[in-house]
Amino acid sequence: MTETKQNILGTAPIGRLLLKFSIPTALTLMVNYLYNIVDQIFIGHATGISGVAATNVTFPIGIIAAALALLIGDGCAANISLHLGRREQEEADRTFANGVVLLLSAGLLLSFFGWLFARKLVVFFGASPTVVEDAAKYMRITLLGQPFAMCNMAFTAVIRADGNPQYMMRSMMIGAGLNLILDPVFIFVCGWGIAGAALATIIGQIVSGIIALAYLPRFQHFRLKKENLRLKGKTVRNIMQLGFPSLCTQTATAATQIVMNNLMRDYGAQTIYGSDIALSCYGLMMKIYQIAHAMFVGLASGTQPINGFNFGAKQYERVKETILVAARISILISVVWFVIFHFGGGFLAALFVEEEPLYEEFAVHCFRLYMLGFFVYGLPNVTSSFFQAIGSPAKALTVSLSRQVIFLIPLALLLSPRFGLDGALGAAPIADGLTFLLALILLLQELKVWKEKGMVS
What is the pLDDT of residues 140-171, one digit of tens each? Predict the structure, then answer.
């Protein structure tokens, strides 16, 4: 390990470090979400609204896979950064090895049980009777690639902690390129429809996963040692503790998707749009939302190794500077995406299904109402990451869960019986505003305590 690389998190300018660690992570996640979006576009043009609805309802299984991957990957990376900051090399090595074992085990178990119960799962996720069979078929095929997709997501965090965030960006770009090429071939040339889209997806994920695994012997600041592969209770607890907010955030996202899918199905059937239009429009909106969300996750994740290392090294002024710079950037990104969602809903919808007036009408309304509070969306993401990096999982968890679990799901269930689809969609901007206020209060309180203790000026 070279001294320069070991200390760059404690010496380089904060802005430069944020660019180095945030942009590759954000692009990696965006490319990962693009797998599903590309499938949706080709499927929409090949099969219409029903095909889009069928693939949309499988989205929660991908979020659950991401939840497990980020539980292990973010927890592993956060602990590694803290250990390196404290110069605890052996603990960093053990954390890494235990994380690899946990990741591979979780991926295989999810694929097995998901494949076994695919049909029951898509019904639970909100599939209408007309799309159940296609949704189950798509899910079973894509589950075969989930262990590799989970390697991609988890290794993004761990390789970022090693100081090489660009590697996983290249890995995901290669996988996405394969998916983009194979999608039209399998769907239109071979005539395989939804199954072809799923097959193109897993081929891209497998290739990206193999590239991620190829990095194992190349880690510079920690090593995969055979003697550390045996799970150690304390190490596993530490990984789970600091990764738990990431797990909860993703699980809450999956829960929100499932609840909203069911509300779209039930209350959509009572409107002129019907269940399938409501499901497909909400689903495509969530795909675009994930692209925006990836930017905030990338920014928040990019702050983690900086905050974790400097907090471990007791360089608190650098931690304060990092969170304040990240907070300003998050607000700027939020405002840009708010404008896109408000004015671009019709254009975005037309990418998936063309010349369907009711579909486009509801899509525009859906984007404008659901994303009405998006201009304050970003701050809670970086605030949660800040608390996670400094070893305050309870506060990180509070911020992570607030939008979906504390505010959005209860509000959607409360408002939809009275206001129908608008009640469900209108719960989101209320939740965004309340979450922003909560995150701001907790962040300011923490910095005030630091100032009173003389940790920062």
Answer: 999 999 999 898 888 877 777 676 767 877 88
457 inside domain:
no
Spatial separation of the C-alpha atoms in residues 385 and 375, rounded to whole Å:
19
Looking at residue 7, the DSSP 8-state letter turns out to be H
Q: What pLDDT score was predicted for residue 1?
A: 37
SS3 247: helix
Q: What are the distances in angstroms from CA 75 to CA 61, 376, 388? A: 21, 26, 9
pLDDT at 4: 36
How far CA 53 is from CA of 28, 119, 133, 138, 427, in Å, comes to 26, 15, 12, 12, 22
* Contact indicator for 383, 443 with CB cutoff of 8 Å: yes
Query: How far apart, in whole angstroms, are the C-alpha atoms of residue 306 and residue 323?
Result: 10
Q: Which amino acid is at 106?
A: A
d(C-alpha 157, C-alpha 304), whole Å: 9
Q: How far from the centroid of its chain's Cα atoms is residue 107's Cα?
A: 16
Mean pLDDT within 406-434: 96
Cβ(317)–Cβ(456) under 8 Å? yes
User: How high is the pLDDT of residue 367?
Assistant: 96
236 near 98, Cβ under 8 Å?
Answer: yes
Could you tell me what percent of the chain has a pLDDT over 90? 41
CA 364 to chain centre: 24
Q: Which domain holds residue 376?
A: 10-452
Distance (Å, whole) CA 153 – CA 77: 12
Q: How many domains does the chain have?
A: 1
Mean pLDDT for the chain overall: 87
Q: Determine the Cα–Cα distance for residues 339 and 13; give it in Å rounded to an integer.
A: 31
Per-residue pLDDT reduced to its tens digit, 328-342: 999 999 999 999 999
Task: Flag whether 143 is in a domain.
Answer: yes
